[in-house]
Amino acid sequence: MSDRNDEHDELRKVVRAFLEHASPSSEVRRLAETDEGYDPEVWRRLADELGLVGLIVPERFGGAGAGAAELAVVMAEMGRTLLCAPYLSSAVLAPAALLESGDETACAEFLPDIADGSVIATLAVAEGNSDIRDLDAVWTTARADGDRHLLFGTKERVTDGYAAGLLLTVARTEKGLSLFAVDPEAVERRPLPALDPTRKLARVHFDRTPARLIGAEGAAEGAVARVLDLGAVALAAEQAGGAERCLELSVEYAKTREQFGRPIGAFQAIKHKCAELLYEVESAKAAAQDAARLWSAAAAASEQGLAASVARAYCSETYVHAAAETIQIHGGIGYTWEHDAHLYLRRAKSSALLLGSTSWHLERVAADIGLVPTA
User: What keywords tag this UniProt record (predicted)?
Assistant: First the structure.
């Protein structure tokens, strides 16, 4: 266990050192103003120099073959710096969807290019105003047309959907939910305004759009649910990392900002805020790490799903609270556009709705432990 902890510590140091130079606040703000929302050169280096883009891709498909524990380490560091990159989409959701499909031919065709960063991929699930975890609300349809399918419908809030070179789309056929690969050039895509400009969202419209079936027809529901659970584990780690950085910013400011001849950290109210945040942040980190550990240990699917929801719910609430308290502790300067505190609050608020709202995850936990009846 200690050897693995040492490996994770070394991975953390390497990723942190890279991101401190590649994702400073000035770069985050610059990329937030673009439609694509990422720097191709940084993305190339993440893939080539660090091997992070193909982190969870098996070695036989050109990846590193790492697990959720390593993914959590990387996501936490990216959360600390608000990295603007399609990592959650292209390095987590898309490869996980291909692997869960069981389609070896599709994996061999798509995963090497995803792993080396030459193709950005994403997963399109949500429709209308429904929660992405409500798979019954998927009404994009796929109709057979010879040896291919044609898609009809609209996907909302597709992460990095505007920059993607491959769209993995969940659609409904006569046999049930199925997964399809779509060329983005064949669809209508439009960037969506978002509270968090550092994570890009898009609307994708299909109108007789040619698509290739991935895996077995009608077999995608369980696979997509597992992909979203893994995404929730990764996102929880990112949230814990962001919350930890908010705490650091607050403590640093409380030590240096003076009022009435003393650092504001000497006042009881600020001490209480920082102490409470420390407890919550450490708990969030533990929840995220525990969820990642269960995934790496190949625990039962039900246990993994429960841990994912526990981590996501707690990390969401912790991150929002930490970001809001950071603004409070910084006082007037924390409310200004020039300060970075609002960037963390925007990321925290938007992440709480990503890959399943906090309420959805809490309801899942409540049902699992018997507080509410299951459907």
Answer: FAD, Flavoprotein, Oxidoreductase
